[in-house]
Design brief:
Oligomer: single chain
Distance between the termini: 49 Å
Helix content: 25-40%
Length: 215
């Protein structure tokens, strides 16, 4: 990862200011409506305009801002402690810990690494789906990740309005892919992915199917 020298001297929270996640990482759109498999592909190439540290900070800041919700004074305390040399008092720490430990655990009480990865992936999806331009559709509502990592339901739900005025929704399911087997060429998304690993449903961080709500 390279960033311009002058910019690289700044801390990640300053480098992330005013930028979006798709701007900080390399995100490209899939083939679109000509195939049944719509997707967004995010990669981390060695690009001079890419800043993974700033992207990580942006995700952390947005995620915790959402978790603190209306307790903005506690979010401000966390951010101050994260970006300065000011230490939290024991009373302040006791107020902040419940908002963090339920998702990420603590050094003395870790939680499942799989759950942490899943929760961060859900929020990465939420930011990219919110900030990436859509092809001929306008977001009318997008559900943010829940407060608990193991909450029921899909991993993401977005409602769109098409140019025709039709309303559709897309329900997203995030899967962790850890194998390198090649998918067969006769799978539905093989053409879209070229040489995609395994099956389409196992590798898409950002993929969903359009559906119209029933009356």
């Amino acid at each position: 990862m390279r960033v311009p020298d002058a910019v690289g001297l700044l801390p990640p929270w300053e480098r992330a200011a005013g930028r979006s996640l798709p701007d900080l990482v390399h995100v490209t759109q899939g083939p679109g409506p000509q195939t049944p498999c719509r997707w967004l592909l995010g990669t981390l190439p060695d690009h001079p305009h890419q800043d993974v540290e700033a992207a990580a900070w942006l995700v952390a800041e947005r995620l915790l801002r959402a978790r603190f919700a209306r307790a903005t004074h506690l979010f401000d305390l966390w951010r101050q402690a994260a970006t300065t040399d000011i230490e939290l008092t024991e009373a302040e720490r006791n107020k902040i810990v419940p908002f963090i430990s339920t998702a990420f655990g603590l050094p003395v009480q870790p939680v499942s690494e799989e759950h942490v990865q899943g929760y961060v992936a859900e929020f990465v999806w939420f930011l990219i789906a919110s900030e990436m331009p859509s092809d001929g559709r306008t977001i009318r509502r997008i559900e943010p990740p829940g407060f608990y990592v193991t909450g029921p339901g899909g991993d993401g739900l977005a409602s769109y309005e098409l140019e025709s005025g039709t309303l559709i929704f897309r329900l997203w399911e995030i899967k962790k892919h850890v194998v390198s087997d090649q998918c067969r060429q006769d799978t539905p998304c093989a053409a879209a992915y070229g040489h995609s690993p395994r099956r389409c449903r196992d590798i898409d961080l950002l993929r969903g199917s359009d559906a119209q709500p029933r009356a």
